[in-house]
């Protein structure tokens, strides 16, 4: 198939397919003398993997690393993608149910508890482990997992609740100065919670984490579920607080 046919079949722009070729992610098996790209069945299978992994939140860099690994196995990749998509579907179903119940709550038909309002929106513990390993190394991630693994179900639930309280508290502060006493108190709680449960963060690492909230669209989308603009607000507040501690 030529690039136009692949574009029409998959719904991916020709420009995107050219970009995938340029970065070595999807190189056509054949290029004509006139310079036209020709895609094989194997190329199309690779493209399917790329699109599935993208849907699951992987970056193009990560996808390329996965596909080029000597240990890569198509069947195992499809199984992983299926499990991940099923988990994502389950979360979406819970979120839809939460929206339906919230609509009924707003209309006065039912009463919802604070916990029920955030069903399906809870911040997953260490949601981007692969990226964390790339950025901070295996040892830091493994230490974090060991700490969390020792927690009971009740302790994990309490930790999730603490995370939610901080996120929601900061979401309620969006639009107010990041150097306000209330915001600084919440940011300090976030710093202490991270260091108590997720690893050891220097002030610079804490500031860097805040920058990641706005640089990585997956973090931004997840955090902004608590309030549009929360990722940006947290990033600025974490930078202000972290630099203040370094003085």
UniProtKB/TrEMBL annotation:
Keywords: Activator, DNA-binding, Transcription, Transcription regulation. GO terms for molecular function: DNA binding; DNA-binding transcription factor activity. The keyword Cell membrane does not apply. InterPro entries: DNA-bd_dom_put_sf (IPR009061), MerR-type_HTH_dom (IPR000551), MerR_fam (IPR047057), TipA-like_antibiotic-bd (IPR036244), TipAS_dom (IPR012925). SUPFAM superfamilies: Antibiotic binding domain of TipA-like multidrug resistance regulators (SSF89082), Putative DNA-binding domain (SSF46955). CDD domains: HTH_TipAL-Mta (cd01106). Residues 1-69 form the HTH merR-type domain. This is MerR family transcriptional regulator. The gene is tipA.
């Amino acid at each position: 198939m030529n690039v136009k046919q692949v574009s029409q079949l998959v719904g991916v722009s020709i420009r995107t397919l050219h970009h995938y070729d340029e970065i070595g992610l999807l190189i056509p098996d054949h290029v004509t003398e006139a310079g036209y790209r020709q895609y094989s069945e194997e190329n199309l299978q690779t493209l399917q993997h790329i699109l599935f992994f993208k849907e699951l939140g992987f970056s193009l860099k990560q996808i390329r690393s996965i596909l080029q690994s000597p240990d890569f196995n198509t069947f195992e990749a499809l199984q992983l993608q299926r499990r991940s998509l099923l988990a994502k579907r389950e979360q979406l179903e819970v979120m839809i149910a939460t929206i339906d119940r919230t609509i009924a709550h707003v209309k006065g038909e039912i009463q919802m508890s604070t916990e029920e309002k955030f069903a399906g929106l809870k911040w997953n513990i260490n949601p981007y482990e692969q990226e964390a390993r790339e950025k901070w190394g295996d040892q830091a991630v493994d230490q974090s997992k060991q700490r969390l693994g020792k927690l009971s179900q009740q302790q994990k639930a309490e930790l999730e609740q603490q995370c939610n309280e901080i996120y929601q508290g900061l979401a309620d502060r969006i639009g107010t100065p990041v150097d306000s006493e209330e915001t600084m108190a919440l940011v300090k709680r976030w710093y202490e919670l991270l260091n108590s449960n997720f690893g050891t963060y220097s002030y610079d690492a804490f500031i860097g984490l805040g920058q990641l909230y706005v640089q990585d669209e997956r973090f931004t989308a997840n955090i902004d579920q608590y309030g549009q603009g929360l990722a940006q607000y947290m990033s600025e507040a974490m930078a202000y607080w972290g630099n203040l501690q370094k003085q």
